[in-house]
């Protein structure tokens, strides 16, 4: 079984558009409520984006989606005051 690359995953996410955003919100709520994204939600997301993925690859895509949703949750949970000015320079910490 060949995994889905990060680039392919990004392409799937970006091609979904507004409807994909709504579906992503549904998957986000699903992950918050149940702790995972359902197979049906992933299949609906793939159908919406027009991507053809074999059934054996959906499990790896589910893991990637759950990881992306967890990152989204962390960003949303941050408390950034409205008065904070944007940074001029970004430093990558590794």
What keyword list fits this structure?
0% strand, mainly alpha, 94 residues
Structural overview:
The protein has one domain. The protein is mainly α and 94 residues long. 11% of the residues are buried. It has helices at 6-15, 17-34, 39-49, 55-77.
Offer a concise description of the structure:
The protein is mainly α and 94 residues long. 66% of the residues lie in helices and 0% in strands. Helix 2 packs antiparallel against helix 3 and helix 2 crosses helix 4.
- The portion of residues forming beta strands comes to under 5%
Oligomer: single chain
Elements, N to C (H/E): HHHH
Q: pLDDT below 50 for ≥5 consecutive residues: which ranges?
A: none
In helices, the fraction of residues equals 55-70%
Topology:
Blueprint: H1 6-15, H2 17-34, H3 39-49, H4 55-77
Helix pairs in contact: 2-3, 2-4
């Amino acid at each position: 079984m060949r995994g889905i690359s990060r680039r392919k995953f990004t392409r799937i996410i970006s091609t979904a558009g507004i409807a994909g955003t709504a579906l992503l919100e549904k998957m986000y709520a699903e992950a918050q409520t149940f702790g995972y994204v359902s197979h049906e939600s992933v299949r609906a997301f793939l159908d919406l984006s027009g991507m053809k993925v074999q059934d054996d690859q959906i499990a790896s895509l589910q893991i990637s989606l759950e990881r992306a949703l967890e990152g989204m949750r962390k960003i949303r949970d941050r408390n950034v005051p409205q008065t904070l000015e944007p940074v001029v320079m970004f430093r990558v910490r590794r």
